[in-house]
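Checklist before submission:
- one chain only
- standard amino acids only
- sequence pasted in full

Submission:
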Amino acid sequence: TLLEICFDADVPLKERTPSEKERFYEKRHRLPEPSCKELATLISQCLNYTPGERPSFRTILRDLTQLQPHNLVDVTSVNPDCPVSDPTVFQKRYLKKIRELGEGHFGKVSLYCYDPTNDGTGEMVAVKSLKSGCSQQLLTSWKREIEILKTLYHENIVKYKGCCSEQ
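Returned file contents:
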């Protein structure tokens, strides 16, 4: 609940499939943290992978009550000192369209600026949008292309950043 509040009701990993979520937690990745140190510490304790080390409800209530309102004034969504552990998590709301780049077999490719901090320092990314109403064969081919791109690392090959299944 605290993460949802800090991230404007955006549920972490909501775009992920159950198997992707399972891999995320099996590898014990960490979810993004708010910039407020006290709040980040409390959330981190609540999300401890060892159940016995998680705080009780009374402890959580006490710690939330002790948070001073002036400490929460400058809370930003993500703590820059604690990078998101899964770099393939991209949120559509941070994409700002620049222009169309072209159209291919699977759909359109557009140039976007991915700027989660909304300060103009975002990264330029190409976004491939799958054609709506595509066949199962086309969808399977597209997924195969994604799997291939994930494994390729060369300066002359587009780097795979992530996948979004939203419309």
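Reviewer check: Residues 10 and 72 are 19 Å apart (CA to CA).
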